[in-house]
Amino acid sequence: MSDMTSHDDAAARGTPFATKTLMPLMNTPFAPGTHLQAIESMAPGAQRDIAQAEYFYFSGQPEQALATAAPYLSSQDIAARLSACLICAYANLPLGQAHEAKALLDQMNAILTKAGEHSPQLGAASAFVSAAAAVLLHLPLPQELPDTDALLPLLPRGLRTFALYVQAHLLYLKGEYAISAGIVEATLLMGATDYPIPTIYLRLVAVMDYMSLKDVEKAREHLLAAWELARPDDLIEAFGEHHGLLGGMLESVIKPEWPDDFRRIIDITYRFSAGWRRVHNPVTGDEVADDLTTTEFATAMLAARGWTNQEIADHLDVSINTVKRHLAHAMDKLGVTSRKELQRYMLR
Predict the structure, then answer these.
(1) Which of 101, 106, 274, 295 is deepest in the core (most CB within 10 A)?
(2) CA dihedral defined by 317, 322, 326, 332, rounded to 10 degrees?
(3) Number of structural domains in the chain
(4) 94 is in which domain, residue-wise?
(5) Residue 318 belongs to a domain
């Protein structure tokens, strides 16, 4: 971070900004099961290295992601540096390095503050990275962000797709579930499925929306579509990141058919969530639950959304007494006595 000013000065003097090193794997269309060929087809150096770091992260290998991306944190290639900041910030979370993650988030916002002065493309790239980092952590958006209408046309297609996921996720957090789902459905219809990583994230936010709307069948449809896309390349990270928002769909759909993968997802969930809360809670002042099992969390989330014990039992395929036990344990751990009080601790 110490050479940030010199790098920004270099941009002001006309250092070219190349989007090819801005999250290149996310921005590359490839058929399921061919991520390795996609990476190997890229130019050696920053583009290929950043893509490999992305793959490590999205496949639940944060140590390797951090080691691969970290050398680019001081790169003269600003797109590679922005990518490295985003990858390393998120890789630090499951590694228990919240301070390092927060420092990288601050670095991204510092770049964003100056980026628009240098070029619209750099401004859009910085805004994309900063918005993605903030929304996924449920943090306040940086004040310097441009309007979505101004941002999207300046991004290449794959990153534009992920930016629409970010927009849909933000609408979900505001409780605008139907509008969020509409953005997802429209984006998928316009060819987003060519880009596996953004599509997985889009479909997971659709699961969140449809579970909030109590349309379990639509939620199941999107979850299975995301899973079918993710499995051939082991792009499992997103499922762990979103577990708490998926309303027990992983327990209902993935656990019975793919128990080994489900256990891996839950391991990702515990590691990621612990780091996530260390950044999110102090910044926002919120008290997101931090000592529940994933099953207790899923049960409490559904209860906080207004599901009855019988509806939760049917959804999770357990007895109503099991639901009551999980819910009682969750409420006891949180020190609350009503479902309304649960909402203060549960992710929106």
Answers:
(1) 101
(2) 160
(3) 1
(4) 4-155
(5) no
Q: Rounded to an integer, what distance in angstroms lies between the CA atom of residue 11 and that of residue 17?
A: 8
Q: Is the pTM of this model over 0.85?
A: yes
Closest by Cα among 184, 168, 159, 169 to 54: 159
- Phi/psi of residue 198, nearest 5 degrees: -60, -35
Can you tell me the distance from the alpha carbon of 8 to that of 254, in angstroms, rounded to the nearest whole number?
A: 46
pLDDT tens digits, residue range 264-323?
999 999 898 888 777 866 655 555 556 778 888 888 888 888 889 998 888 888 899 999
Residue 29 counted as domain residue? yes
Token pair listed for 249: 């769909």
- Report how far residue 143's alpha carbon sits from residue 134's, in angstroms, rounded to the nearest whole number: 11
* Spatial distance between the Cα atoms of 283 and 271, rounded to a whole number of angstroms: 19
Distance (Å, rounded) from C-alpha 86 to C-alpha 237?
15
Q: What single letter denotes the amino acid at residue 345?
A: Y
Q: What is the pLDDT of residues 14-42, one digit of tens each?
A: 444 568 999 999 999 999 999 999 999 99
Q: Which residues contact 120 (CB under 8 A, 6 or more apart)?
A: 154
CB 226 within 8 A of CB 197: no
